[in-house]
Amino acid sequence: MRVLRPKATQGDSGLLLRSGGEMTRLQTITTELGLEKRCTKCGEYYPADTEFFYHQNRGPLYLHSWCRACCSEDRNDRYHNRRVSITNPVLPATVGVAS
After folding, report:
1. Under DSSP, is residue 10 helix (H, G, I), strand (E, B) or coil?
2. Cα 58 from Cα 50, distance rounded (Å)
3. How crowded is residue 31: how many other Cβ atoms within 10 Å of its Cβ?
4. Dihedrals φ, ψ of 75, to 5°?
């Protein structure tokens, strides 16, 4: 079954105005530099190429939805959180142990 979406018009500053008055951000815009894609994590627009976005095997542009900087930051945060949990494990409280 095909879902019909309401018609939309492009407004200023990369916003999309839907017929119901709802404002949403465009995922891609065309500027004097060419096609630019919006990072869904930080919200910034970057040129839609593999210099700013990782390649992936799905989607219309075959580019990841997060920019490389956001992916790197997230990966480093996860690494450091994992290292802290390994070096400082939370030990369960001992119940009823006499000393």
Report:
1. strand
2. 14
3. 10
4. -65, -45
Instruction: Please state the pTM of the whole predicted model.
Output: 0.60
CA proximity to 19, closest of 31, 11, 30: 11
pLDDT per residue rounded down to tens, the chain (99 residues) = 444 444 444 444 455 545 555 545 678 889 888 999 999 999 999 999 999 999 988 888 889 999 999 999 999 999 988 888 777 776 666 666 565
Gap between the Cα atoms of 49 and 35, Å rounded: 9
With a CB cutoff of 8 Å and minimum separation 6, the contacts of 24 are 15, 16, 18
Q: How many CA atoms lie within 13 A of 6 on its CB side?
A: 11
Give Cβ neighbours of residue 53 (< 8 Å, ≥ 6 apart).
37, 39, 46, 63, 64, 66, 67, 68
